[in-house]
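We modelled the chain as a single entity of 243 amino acids. Its sequence is:
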Amino acid sequence: SFDVLLLFPCFSSLFWFVAAVVCHLSFSFSSKQNELKQCEMVCYNGTALFLFSVFLLLGLCSRSATAVPGLQGACKNTTAVKDMTVDLDVSRYLGVWYDQARSTSAFFNRECSCTTANYTILPDSGLVGVENACNKGGVNGTRTVVDGKAEQPDPKEHPGYLLVWFFSKYAKGPYEVLSTDYETHAIVASCSELGGSLIWILTREPIVSDAFVQKYVNLVESWGFDTSDLERTTHTNQCVYNN
């Protein structure tokens, strides 16, 4: 539950706050160079983790305030959803996808038009590079870009199940590819207690018919997923994507 999720950042914040304060005091009164360096490192790490915990706590509070739903429909059985994922060929999945419909509770997608996701292979790590972009506030709004990474934790058994993160690798979310032909469409779910029950319908072309999108909305509903907060994403000839 949400109350249980709050315990981690609360206790983590308290622990690292105390650790950082104690270490800063020790650092101030120590005269040995090796102790200074060690303590300085602990101070920096402790302070960084303390700040991360605070931001996580604020994020959870914000989640509560904006009433992000918990698991709904088929997402209630996360194991079953994981088993529904496709035998994904990542190399064919790479490139630009256009977001045609998405759950409104998805944080980045709010007030977005001309939304895209661009997937690449990062040469230094072999991970999947994720670039989400959209025009905030409308078709003529400011282009906003968020970069992240993704990995396949179990490529042999569940190649279509990925974990994605943007700001910290310690805050990963599921990216579950339920359907794709690589050339026209992809259906993606993300079922997690923290993020809720999220659905995206993606296409390779920016402008497609409502009937084309509705066909996949109907498919998602037939699988038992909740689509009550699914809304159409605006794409027009005025969109400038720069992908």
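As a brief sanity check on the tokenised model: The chain has a mean pLDDT of 81. The longest strand covers residues 112-121.
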